[in-house]
Amino acid sequence: MTSYYIFNALDASRIVPGAGYDLSVWVNLDLCYGSGMGCESVDVYCVWGGLNQADEGHTSTTDTDGSFQKLTTTCRWNEEQAGDNPKILFKFECGDSNSRIDEVTLVGPLAQ
Fold this sequence. Notes:
mainly beta; four-stranded antiparallel β-sheet; three-stranded antiparallel β-sheet; 7 strands
C-alpha cells in the first residue's frame, strides 16, 4: 500500500479563527482494480502549515461498498493555524487502484 495525498488549499484571509466549519465530502474507495490490491482507507483532515492537524477536524472510512459515501466533520483552526496555509487534506491508502472524491463542501462564517 502507498499513501497518496490530495490537498485543497483555503483562502486564509476568509477563515475566522476559532469558528466551526462544517465539512462534507463524498468519497468512493475502489477496493480492487484488476489484479491490484485496491484501497484500504481514506482519511480527511483539516490541516495547516505542512501536515499539522488543526484543533478539530478528522473523519475516515475503510469501506464504501463500491459506491460514494458521505463523510462529515467539523474543522476549527485557531488564530495561528488559520493564518498559516489552512487546507483540507485527503489521504488515501491504495495499491494499484483508483478512488474518487466528489462534492467537497465547507460551510462556515467568512472573515470580513
